[in-house]
Structure formats: C-alpha cells, structure tokens
C-alpha cells in the first residue's frame, strides 16, 4: 500500500487525513470490477484456498466459483434475467453465498430478507419488489407459500442448509433419537409445497459464456431498511456502491494479508453490515469465511479450535460474550488482529476487555444501509479515539448541518445532522421518489438523520438519532444520554428510553429497565437516582420494569417495539 502523502495529510478540507493509520491512502482506486468479477479474480488468484467453512466442511474458491456458474445456469432456466428481482430468505450458510453471486452474475437483483420476519413483514416487502423467483430456507417456506396469490413468487426454490454440513454431521442429525430430532427441527423442515423446487435442481450445467455480465452501475441489491423515517423501503445499491465499500474497507486495513485471513461470519449475511464485511469484502481478498447460521458462543468456540479467526466483525454484545469466554479460558482469541464494531455504541470497557484477551484492535465504525453500509471508522492504529465513531473512510466526505435547514453548516463541536457523500452512497429508494428526494440531496449528499458533533481534526461523535430525540417542555432530550445514566445504576442490567404521549399532546420521557438477578428497585428509586445525574426535564416520568428488551438479530435494542410495549402496558 502507498503511504498517505504529505499534501493529503494537510488537506484543509479533509483534516481527518492526518489521523489515518500508516499506509492508508486518502482515496481508493477507480472501481473497475463488479461483484462477480471480484469473486472470479479471487478464484483465479487463490483457486485452492478455502473460501467457505460451515461446521468444518470447506469449499475452495475454485469450487465456489464453479457452483456460482452452475446455479446461475439453473436460475437462467427458471427465466431469471437482467434486472429481475430474486428474493433470498436465508440464514448464513454456503447456499446463501452461492445464490447471492449467481443472481448477480445474471445481471439480476438480489433482495435480502430476514428469514425470521413475520408473514406480515415479508408480505410488505414482496408486494414492493415483486420478485417472481425466491430462494428460501425450507424451515420458513410455509410463510412464503402463504403469501397471497398475487404476491407469492412464481418460482420458489427451497434450501436445506444441513446438506452443506459434513456428511458425519448430516448422518448424526438423522438418528432416531430425541436430541437429533430436536436439532433437526431447528435447522430444516419439509418444504411447504410439492411445487417448490429443491436447491439441488439448480445445479446443472455452467452458465454459457455468451451470457452478458452485469455493468458497474447496474442495480445489485435491494436492501430493506427503515431509513431515517417511516416503513421499511428498499435501498438501491449498485455493483459500484458495494464494490466501493469493500475497497474502502480494504484500504482502511492495510495490514490484512490477502489470501490468508480468516473472517468469522457471526453477523447475518442478510443484514447490510454482514453483507459487505463478509459476502463482498471477505470474498474480494481471498479470505476464508467461517459461516455461522446464528451467533452462538459454543459454535464459535468449536470453530476456533481448528480455524482460529484473524478478523471478526460484530456488535458490542458479541465481543462482550466472547471476551468473557476467553477470560475464563474457554476460547483462545489471540489470533484476532482486527475487529470492527458497528450498529450500536461501543463501550470503552468492551474495547479494553477485548484488546486484553486478543492483543488485537477493536475499533468502532459508523454506517447505514444507504451507505453500503460503512462510511466512517476509527483508525486501526494509535490515533483511534474510543467513544467516537471515527473519521470518514477514504473517498468519503462529510458535512454537519442544521437539521431544519440543510443549506446551513454548523461549527466545529456544535451538534447537527451528519451528511455523507462518497462512491458508496446509494441511488435512492425503490419506487419512492419523494422519500429519496428527502434523504438524497441533489448534489449527492446523504442525510443520515443522525445528530453528531465533529472535532477540529474530523472525529465524529454520535449524539442521537434525530427522529428519536424527545422534545419535552421545549427541550430536546437524547435517549442515549438517559440510557447511559440508567445503565450506571448498580441494579439495572439493561435499559431503553423512548418518548410517550402525554395527555396534553406533548411528549414525556419513559424508560423500560431490566433488573439484575436478585435486585429490587422501585420506579421512584430509579427516578431519584436519575435526578442526581440529569436535569429535571431529562428524568423519566415513567419507569417500567420488564423481563427483557426487544432486540434485533444483531443485538440492537428496537426502540420502536419498546415504545409499543410501554403503550400497551396497563
């Protein structure tokens, strides 16, 4: 890698460049490959290297590329062509990786779905993208089969992910004993309809070479997100967007050894974070991607014995659980050189504990689906700043504006809405021109909806989501600030703060808290605790004790569901 040049380090329009780690350049090279071309390049460079590992069974890059070409041929026979949407409703497994690249090879569009979504959630998305072909986990095929006739895909392919496991493990799952039957029920099921095709039916001949490949600016993925407002909508991401983000990640970590890294896929591939860090970034540098259908410390411990990780992207709760296991001698994490945390604030205590047990770096990044998703990161070196989300990635610009008037930039250290511009920024929302215009400004700036402050040297600290700010008595209250105080209470294990309507039409601050085992607290006691640490208008007017907080699959507290929970409480 070329070191950062002296002129770039002193660029007054990009003061953060002086904080870049050694060897990181200010800009990435021109984007020249689509996603399938990047995979093909890895197959050429590292044909015999392991690309995928699943419960110990491995697939080489040569084998992976061959499978992609064969499945692309099978999908073409089903009528899939350029621009067609193909729905993937799959957990993290080898078939997911193959399906992703096979769809893209045809110039078609991948639409990722969370397989644990309800029928109602899936119906909304299928009505929106109108995919006529879906590749689904057999365990959830019934939910797809029950979609209304005018929404249900014309062709449904079911995946039994246990067939990607080692033969011995497949045989063990078929044993006629209660333990095996219980395990099998969690992993696979009979397809909901005989009309559904098995994954293996796609494994025919390779795709003919005459079939045209996609172009850089073709749509690659529709990734559903709530965005900054409203119902989930499909973020349009091109090959260039996703390839740029993988290249930016590669530039950010010049110490990575191409063809020799072991990535742990503990993040779901259907999530934008897991998609980029694992499906595109890992595959583009010839890494071994160890896949986990769900995050499970026991599964990680087993995998680490024969394939020690070197790169582990995740979220703070994952790092906490793994670090505690390492402290108890249950797992050796000393091989992990880099770990990138996202999706939620990273506590400094988690960083310290992780780096103590690994000897490697844990840095926080920032992103959103509309940015493919990563836009900022802490430098992987001594200039990193725990507590902030870092500085802009190479080829990325930022502004901080008055959230009520995007034409006004705010000063250094003043809170404002973060804007992002770069090659990773999406093309808009699928079939939603008005919401696109609200989020994507005419000159390419992406409105994030996040309220931040930026230091003189370019480090960004997130204050809160604009849409989640609570306005009470004319004052803005940051839920994160109140949550931080609640979590400092010795008897509170978890907390979430939301706004609830008052009888006069205004808002009030409300909290849901989880109490530590054996502890006893009262709502009045919690409020008294907060009064000594917060201004009166920030103290929750209502505190409800709950058994647990609703979280997403990657561990993020779902504030919208917390609010619904409190509204429904007597």
TrEMBL record:
Name under which the protein is recorded: Long-chain fatty acid--CoA ligase
Protein EC: 6.2.1.3
Protein origin, superkingdom: Bacteria
PROSITE patterns on file: AMP_BINDING
PANTHER family linked to this entry: AMP-DEPENDENT SYNTHETASE AND LIGASE, LONG-CHAIN-FATTY-ACID--COA LIGASE
The keyword Ligase appears for this protein: yes
Keywords: Ligase
InterPro entries: AMP-bd_C, AMP-bd_C_sf, AMP-binding_CS, AMP-dep_synth/lig_dom, ANL_N_sf, ATP-dep_AMP-bd_enzyme
Domain spans labelled AMP-binding enzyme C-terminal: 481-556
SUPFAM superfamilies for the chain: Acetyl-CoA synthetase-like
Domain AMP-dependent synthetase/ligase: 40-430
GO molecular function, one term: long-chain fatty acid-CoA ligase activity
Any Pfam family: AMP-binding_C
């Amino acid at each position: 890698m070329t070191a950062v040049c002296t002129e770039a380090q002193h660029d007054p329009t990009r003061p953060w460049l002086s904080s870049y780690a050694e060897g990181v350049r200010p800009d990435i090279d021109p984007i020249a490959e689509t996603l399938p071309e990047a995979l093909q390049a890895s197959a050429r460079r590292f044909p015999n290297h392991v690309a995928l590992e699943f419960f110990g069974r491995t697939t080489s890059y040569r084998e992976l590329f061959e499978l992609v070409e064969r499945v692309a041929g099978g999908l073409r026979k089903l009528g899939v062509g350029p621009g067609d949407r193909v729905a993937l409703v799959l957990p993290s497994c080898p078939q997911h990786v193959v399906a992703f690249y096979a769809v893209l090879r045809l110039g078609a569009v991948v639409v990722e779905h969370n397989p644990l979504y309800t029928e109602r959630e899936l119906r909304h998305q299928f009505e929106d993208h109108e995919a006529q072909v879906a590749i689904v986990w057999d365990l959830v095929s019934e939910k797809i089969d029950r979609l209304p006739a005018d929404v249900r895909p014309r062709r449904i392919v079911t995946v039994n992910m246990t067939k990607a496991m080692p033969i011995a493990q497949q045989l063990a799952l078929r044993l006629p004993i209660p333990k095996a039957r219980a395990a099998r029920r969690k992993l696979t099921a009979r397809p909901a309809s005989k009309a559904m095709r098995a994954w293996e039916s796609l494994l025919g001949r390779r795709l003919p070479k005459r079939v045209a490949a996609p172009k850089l600016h073709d749509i690659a993925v529709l990734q559903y997100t709530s965005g900054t407002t409203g119902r989930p909508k499909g973020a349009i991401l091109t090959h260039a967007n996703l390839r740029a983000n993988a290249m930016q990640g590669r530039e950010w970590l010049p110490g990575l050894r191409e063809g020799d890294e072991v990535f742990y896929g503990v993040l779901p591939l259907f999530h934008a974070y897991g998609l980029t860090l694992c499906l595109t970034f890992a595959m583009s540098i010839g890494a071994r991607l160890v896949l986990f259908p769900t995050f499970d410390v026991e599964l990680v411990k087993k995998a680490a014995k024969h394939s020690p990780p070197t790169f582990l992207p995740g979220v703070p709760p994952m790092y906490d659980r793994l670090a505690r296991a390492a402290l108890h001698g249950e797992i050796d994490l000393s091989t992990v050189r880099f770990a990138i945390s996202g999706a939620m604030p990273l506590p400094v205590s988690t960083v310290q504990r992780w780096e103590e047990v690994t000897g490697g770096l844990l840095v926080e990044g920032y992103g959103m689906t509309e940015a493919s998703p990563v836009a900022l990161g802490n430098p992987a070196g001594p200039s990193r700043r725990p507590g902030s989300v870092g500085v802009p990635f190479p080829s990325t610009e930022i502004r901080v504006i008055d959230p009520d008037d995007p034409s006004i930039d705010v000063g250094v250290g003043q809170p404002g809405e973060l804007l992002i511009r770069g090659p990773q920024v999406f093309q808009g929302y699928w079939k939603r021109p008005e919401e696109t215009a609200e989020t994507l400004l005419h000159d390419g700036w992406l409105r994030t909806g996040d309220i931040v402050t930026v230091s003189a040297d370019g480090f960004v600290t997130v204050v809160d989501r604009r849409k989640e700010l609570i306005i009470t008595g004319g004052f803005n209250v940051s839920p994160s600030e109140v949550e931080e105080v609640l979590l400092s209470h010795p008897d509170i294990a978890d907390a979430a703060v939301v706004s609830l309507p008052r009888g006069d039409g205004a808002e009030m601050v409300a909290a849901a808290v989880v109490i530590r085992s054996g502890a006893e607290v009262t709502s009045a006691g919690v409020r008294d605790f907060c009064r000594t640490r917060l201004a009166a208008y920030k103290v929750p007017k209502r505190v409800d004790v709950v058994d647990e907080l609703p979280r997403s699959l990657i561990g993020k507290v779902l504030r919208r569901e917390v609010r619904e929970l409190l509204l429904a409480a007597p």
